[in-house]
């Protein structure tokens, strides 16, 4: 391809990101652009100059997309009902595979819940559902046999190790494993999602986008399923039939496991539509989270001894920092790296700076508690998590500041997030596999 063809291809790719524009629309606009470029070249301009002038005369591509959206708004609504995607010549194959895997995940999870104690079933939950989700991506990405074998081996070894630990129902390390093991499993599934190309920064960022969008869809499915179960329970109660046991012990667990696959399929089927929700979510929740963190810091300043004295508060602060981290990742993944700095980027820097301040206060309190009462599994796990998050936030703040000052491209911040991504499953693996024996499974 010539340099002109490459520039036009980039321009067309940017247009195709907007679901309001069909392929035929983009092709028509590309044809107009090429005609204008050819006309300017005939007048004596070189191709680079002609392309820049032609694009300028075509107008802002976002404005063009918005105009198409107004004229063809019905397209957006029609896209909300995804057609069953399938390989050529196999109608409905993907949906059939998803439903079969979802049913398998639900039934296996229920069988384990029936056969083992609740705490052991909770421990195995992610190990039971994760392989079915990984199998879906392995099938869809045509994952190689070698990579598939490695991922299966990792899950088998991990499951064997954690299930060999002699946990009691009230062990703190058991709770830590239950909370951290899904992160490890999600990383393994993420490698399948990336088609085995985990070294690619672009594939890692795709996984970040997928994760955020999957959370949106799963939450919607969970809310809808909860309402449906509640209405069903009320309807049976009205006729003096107690259906609560069946609904709570069977329908909800089966639905929760199966929805993992269904949500993933919905994200895969409708990536273009849900990506429009990401910027809206980040712009709404970023200022709200800023206000929350500012209020927390004021409360800490008013009662300086509160943080060190309240263990539950430290755990809550760690959860808030995880929320901030997720918001940061989602913001970075949803942003067009070619856009200049905007108010949203300034708010993101404020958010990260406040999160660093909160993290610093929490870290000081944690170190003080460990020095006074000694280490424990919960303290070590929380301390490590806060340190992992702090490193990311500090570097992100520096790169965001450079972007706002126009000394660094936004791509540096995006690349840092994808480079640092393996740190989270790595620490989760330490907590799930190393801390229990270190603390004698207490």
Automatic annotation (TrEMBL):
Q: Which InterPro entries match?
A: Perm_prefix_1 (IPR047928)
Among its keywords, does the record have Calcium?
no
List keywords of the entry alphabetically: Membrane, Transmembrane, Transmembrane helix
TM regions (residue ranges) = 145-162, 174-195, 215-239, 246-268, 280-301, 313-334, 346-368, 380-404, 424-441
Report what the protein is called. Answer: DUF4153 domain-containing protein
Instruction: Identify the species of origin.
Output: Nocardioides aquiterrae
């Amino acid at each position: 391809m010539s340099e002109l063809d490459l520039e036009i291809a980039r321009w067309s790719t940017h247009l195709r990101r907007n679901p309001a524009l069909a392929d035929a629309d983009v092709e028509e606009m590309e044809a107009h652009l090429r005609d204008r470029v050819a006309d300017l070249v005939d007048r004596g301009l070189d191709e680079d100059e002609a392309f820049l002038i032609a694009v300028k005369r075509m107008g802002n591509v976002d404005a063009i997309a918005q105009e198409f959206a107004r004229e063809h708004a019905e397209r957006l609504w029609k896209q909300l009902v995804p057609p069953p995607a399938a390989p050529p010549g196999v109608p409905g194959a993907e949906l059939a595979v998803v439903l079969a895997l979802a049913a398998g995940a639900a039934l296996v999870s229920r069988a384990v819940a029936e056969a083992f104690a609740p705490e052991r079933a909770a421990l195995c939950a992610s190990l039971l559902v994760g392989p079915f989700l990984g199998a879906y991506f392995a099938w869809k990405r045509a994952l190689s046999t070698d990579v598939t074998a490695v991922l299966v081996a990792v899950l088998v070894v991990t499951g064997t190790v954690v299930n060999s630990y002699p946990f009691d129902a009230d062990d703190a390390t058991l709770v830590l494993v239950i909370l951290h093991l899904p992160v490890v499993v999600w990383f393994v599934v993420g490698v399948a999602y990336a088609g085995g190309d985990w070294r690619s920064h672009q594939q890692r960022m795709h996984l970040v986008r997928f994760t955020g969008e999957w959370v949106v869809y799963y939450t919607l499915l969970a809310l809808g399923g909860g309402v449906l179960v509640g209405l069903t329970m009320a309807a049976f109660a009205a006729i003096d039939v107690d259906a609560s046991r069946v609904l709570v012990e069977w329908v909800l667990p089966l639905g929760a496991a199966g929805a993992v696959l269904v949500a993933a399929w919905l994200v895969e089927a409708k990536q273009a539509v849900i990506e429009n929700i990401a910027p809206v979510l980040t712009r709404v929740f970023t200022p709200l989270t800023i206000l929350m963190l500012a209020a927390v810091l004021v409360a800490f300043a008013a009662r300086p001894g509160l943080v060190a004295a309240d263990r539950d508060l430290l755990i809550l602060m760690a959860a808030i920092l995880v929320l901030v981290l997720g918001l940061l990742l989602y913001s970075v993944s949803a942003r067009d790296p070619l856009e200049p700095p905007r108010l949203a980027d300034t708010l993101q820097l404020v958010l990260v700076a406040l999160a660093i301040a909160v993290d610093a206060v929490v870290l000081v309190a944690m170190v003080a508690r460990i020095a006074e009462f000694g280490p424990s599994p919960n303290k070590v796990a929380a301390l490590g998590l806060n340190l992992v998050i702090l490193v990311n936030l500090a570097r992100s703040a520096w790169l965001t500041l450079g972007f706002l000052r126009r000394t660094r491209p936004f791509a540096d911040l995006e690349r840092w997030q994808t480079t640092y991504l393996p740190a989270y499953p790595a620490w989760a693996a330490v907590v799930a596999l190393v801390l229990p024996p270190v603390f004698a499974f207490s």
